[in-house]
Design brief:
Blueprint: H1 2-26, H2 31-53, H3 62-88, H4 91-98, H5 101-112, H6 120-139, H7 144-167, H8 173-194, H9 207-230, H10 237-244, H11 247-259, H12 267-293
Helix pairs in contact: 1-9, 1-10, 1-11, 2-3, 2-8, 2-9, 3-4, 3-7, 3-8, 4-7, 4-11, 5-6, 5-7, 6-12, 8-9
């Protein structure tokens, strides 16, 4: 029963993550302002949790704090390019590009983690994903800019995922989340200050944007982040990876239901997306089989 509860929480969390792309289209401000507000609200939410409800806060060295703040900067870049992809193309394009995170992770992991090695399975799945992306490129040339931004976002996601895999072994998810959200907010604020770009980015927002941002920053970011990491204590990595692969599916379905024809793409896009999603879903099964057989 306890296991079922955690699995249900994970599915709910992944479904909530599907809404992050929806909010990206609903919120009218630029990608930069959107991420600035998202990380500010998430930072405040996690700070309240850490310093009011959490009685078992770990002691963190200055070096570790700097590392977590730096990872937060990478998260900020990931979200900036992700939302920029949405605003220059569509939600569906951005989410399908995000599915290539597994491809980048398979190549980057051995670089950051010397014990890891590139496997034949990773290479084959990666090549299939490349075929799917190339297929989409050939049919959706009007969204080339959005596809490029989406792939950059995916690359950034692979980097901070690898780092977080290391950090979560020693620190609670809420602590990691707090430092990373604040680190991203700090990076964006420094950029705003040093470039004197206040005239370019108007931080004043409408009432509708305010409520969308509050939901995005609290429920979809602070709460979902902590929950998504916490369930890993009970569920296997295999189960978590397989379930998380549903995020693009949830997001694309939600986008079509909410925005209708605006999110409908050509048949070529869905064929390319099917190739990518099939590779992403098959990957855990094939990887698990080869690990068991030792091949």
């Amino acid at each position: 029963m306890h296991l079922n509860k955690n699995l249900l929480l994970l599915h709910i969390t992944v479904f909530i993550w599907g809404f992050t792309a929806i909010f990206g289209a609903l919120i009218s401000v630029s990608a930069y302002e959107l991420v600035w507000y998202r990380m500010l609200i998430a930072s405040i939410s996690l700070f309240i949790y850490e310093y009011i409800w959490n009685k078992n806060r770990p002691q963190i060295s200055f070096k570790k704090q700097v590392i977590l703040l730096g990872i937060g900067g990478i998260v900020a870049l990931h979200w900036f390019f992700f939302y920029h992809s949405i605003k220059t193309s569509t939600i569906s394009v951005a989410l399908v590009c995000l599915s290539s995170t597994a491809l980048f992770t398979s190549f980057l992991s051995p670089i950051f983690n010397k014990k890891a090695k590139i496997s034949i399975v990773d290479l084959i799945i990666g090549l299939v994903i490349i075929v799917g992306i190339a297929f989409i490129f050939s049919f959706e040339t009007q969204y080339t800019e959005g596809i490029i931004y989406g792939l950059i976002a995916s690359f950034c996601a692979a980097i901070f995922t690898i780092f977080n895999e290391i950090e979560v072994k020693d620190l609670p998810a809420s602590t990691i989340g707090l430092y990373e959200m604040f680190g991203g907010f700090l990076l964006l604020s420094l950029y705003l200050g040093f470039t004197n770009s206040q005239n370019q980015y108007q931080l004043a927002i409408s009432s509708s944007d305010f409520w969308y941002l509050m939901l995005l920053g609290t429920v979809c970011t602070a709460l979902a982040y902590v929950t998504g990491v916490a369930v890993m204590k009970e569920l296997s990595a295999y189960t978590v990876v397989l379930t998380t692969n549903l995020e693009p599916v949830y997001g694309i379905v939600l986008a079509v239901l909410i925005f209708g024809k605006r999110e409908l793409m050509t048949a070529g896009f869905y064929q390319g997306a099917a190739i990518i999603l099939l590779a992403v879903f098959v990957y855990p099964f094939v990887k698990g089989y080869f690990n068991k057989t030792g091949r």
